[in-house]
């Protein structure tokens, strides 16, 4: 079976076929997780079909991917990213001849605005959580506001790698 690469181990498909990703992306120290994946050039998916309660930003540092979110397909090239709101089925397949490498920042919506901050939560996060497919966004450096988000994402991953010299490189395996 194909495995999703995960810092600290591999995640396998759920036995109950719910497609719900059964690991938590939050710890007592942080309401998020960071992942780095180098995808082998095989027929297996680059990222298996799943969904989770957290939002996700994916940044493609090398190669190309067809990224599927529900019934939409986005072609991502090196330097692009995508925002996936919580609760959406998503997966990726390789595209082209170059091995894809990507980072993922998976975070709880409460990381941005705690739910007890009801005004900001209901004004800014609730629309994303309740109309989530409409907010799925391909991020490209050609669009100025998206370039800023991509820059922040790259800084997050670079900072994490510098602070954690043991940042695990993960390899998908069949």
Walk me through the structure.
- With 174 residues, the chain is of the alpha+beta class.
- Helix content is 19%, strand content 34%.
- It contains two helices and twelve strands.
- The strands form three sheets. Strands 11-8-5-10-3-12 form a six-stranded mixed beta sheet, with helices on one face. The protein has a four-stranded antiparallel beta sheet with strand order 4-9-6-7, with no helix packed on it.
- The termini are close together.
- The N terminus is likely disordered.
Radius of gyration: 16 Å
> What is the share of helical residues?
10-25%
| Structural class category | alpha+beta
Mean pLDDT: 83
| Element pattern in H and E | EEEEEEEEEEHEHE
Strand arrangement within the widest β-sheet reads: 11-8-5-10-3-12
Shape: globular
User: Approximately what portion of the residues adopt beta-strand conformation?
Assistant: 25-35%
What's the number of extended β-strand segments?
12
């Amino acid at each position: 079976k194909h495995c999703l690469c995960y810092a600290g181990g591999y995640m396998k498909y759920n036995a109950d076929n719910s497609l719900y990703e059964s690991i938590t992306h939050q710890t007592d120290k942080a309401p998020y997780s960071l992942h780095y994946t180098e995808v082998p050039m095989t027929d297996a998916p680059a990222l298996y079909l799943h969904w989770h309660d957290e939002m996700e930003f994916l940044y493609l540092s090398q190669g190309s991917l067809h990224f599927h979110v529900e019934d939409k397909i986005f072609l991502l090239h090196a330097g692009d990213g995508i925002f996936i709101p919580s609760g959406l089925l998503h997966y990726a397949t390789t595209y082209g001849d170059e091995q894809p490498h990507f980072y993922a920042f998976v975070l709880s919506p409460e990381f941005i605005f705690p739910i007890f901050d009801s005004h900001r939560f209901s004004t800014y996060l609730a629309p994303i959580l309740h109309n989530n497919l409409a907010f799925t966004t391909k991020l490209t450096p050609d669009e100025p506001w998206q370039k800023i988000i991509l820059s922040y994402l790259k800084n997050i991953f670079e900072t994490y790698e510098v602070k954690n010299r043991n940042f695990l490189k993960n390899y998908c395996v069949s």
